[in-house]
Amino acid sequence: MNINTNYLNLEESYLFSTIARKVNEFQEANKDAKVIRLGIGDVTLPLTNSVVSAMQEAVTEMSNSETFKGYGPEQGYEFLRTAVKEYYGRKNVELAPDEIFISDGAKSDLGNILDVFELEGTSLIPNPVYPTYLDTNVMLGRKINFLNGNENNNFLPMPEDGDGGDLIYLCSPNNPTGATYTRDQLQIWVDYANKNGSVILFDSAYETFIKDDNLPTSIFEIEGARTCAIEFCSFSKTAGFTGTRCGYTVIPHDLVLNGTKVNKLWLRRQTTKFNGVPYIIQKGAAAVFTEQGQKETRANVAYYLENAKIIREAFTELGFWFVGGDNSPYIWIKCPAGYDSWQFFDKLLNEAHVVGTPGVGFGSNGQGYFRISAFGNRENVIEATERIKKLFR
Description:
This protein is of the alpha/beta class. The chain contains 12 helices and 15 strands. Helix 2 packs antiparallel against helix 9 and helix 10 packs parallel to helix 12. It starts with 14 loop residues before the first helix and ends with a helix.
């Protein structure tokens, strides 16, 4: 028996594992230092009251034989898929319930979706990029072309910035850069995919952070997307489900390859390899879409966006170039002259005791850039920006 040698082509260590090691080493040597972490994109606000109440009710249901739930439908309970359908309806996007698949998060589905596509194809992946896109393709040995994201295109690469591919990864608002595609830009991508027979894998995990009404929050707001796109979304950043795990994937029936509906293949894949999201979690997720749940979620998102505003204002004052933070929880800054990404990381850690994410960890085009996350608590964000301003003023 041999191993899958494609795994040997992966980076030795996952980006955030390297960051954790460096921070732990610093903390061990500086036990009294208060380290403020604005790096990993984990949320800090707790689950909202609506979500917690729904989960508590579900726990009670599970304690009674009359309302106990065993194995649930692999595609998700109808009550949650209906709630997602109605949510899209408010965006003027019409979906059928069986075009929606409930999952344990966008990250899982973005990796697992490759099961239904041929291995000999070519994936077109932005550079810089969320590491999961790249690593899951490397694991399978798929050919990879890169989209050249850079300062000139505000890290929103278009078809002319790459060499093409049959699977196209797009993330808007983007992780790591926080940049957000316009409606016209996404229309160009949809037209390109339909013309070339490609499939867009659209990651909309941060869609609730878009506050500009002129910016689309779903690829399916774009004409022609139903025949060329799959959308992945998550409750992690929307409603704080990073520790409870829930998301959904939308695959329209109109997406047909080689005479076969991709929706049908994904359903077959899920029924074989996935037992579904726990009933208790799905009840909590459904509460997110209630009137009160939406109100509470918007309040949490507004809190993080205010954090982002504080960070943006600090780097504006210092004269740094950056993108993001207006319709996204991430701010992507250009490191000062003379610093590469890891040198800037070390300077912030050692001299300001602030942790961010080196841009080069997201790809070669991230060298010389740095990601700051707005997912901290307000007090820490204010203190961190004051430390940074003192250091670079």
